[in-house]
Amino acid sequence: MTTIYPSTEELKAQARRLRQAMAERGSDIPHSAALELVAKQHGLRDWNTLSALAAKPNAAPGVPFAVGSAVHGRYLNQPFTGKILALSEQGGGLHKITIHFDEPVDVVTFESFSAFRRRINAQIDADGLSPRKTSNGVPHLMLDI
What we know:
By secondary structure, the chain is α+β, with helices and mostly antiparallel strands. 25% of the residues lie in helices and 32% in strands. The protein folds into two domains: 3-54; 70-143, no CATH class.
């Protein structure tokens, strides 16, 4: 299994947001400590390892998109635009993808109830289609490639 990491710039931005959140809670930490914590979040032992892996080419084999790419399509049949935050090979021609939507997507079609999603995790094939489908046979996630 191949894991594709966000860019070094995105990882540093994650560390800045973590540092800010910790400071707001009264726990100031140095930037270097925030970088180390971001590395741990990604399952790695330290920042140096994460930054080295993030510097590698950021495209998964067999898919026409990469971490950091802007994407658009339909999620639960609702249109969206967003950015790929993570992408990893799952085997069998499938990839795990994490997308952060530019605007929250209402995933409920019932008129008197709403449920908004801002970030999703899904599986997709090389065509950008989810193998999971709704009850009417529409893929959960469809990326416009």
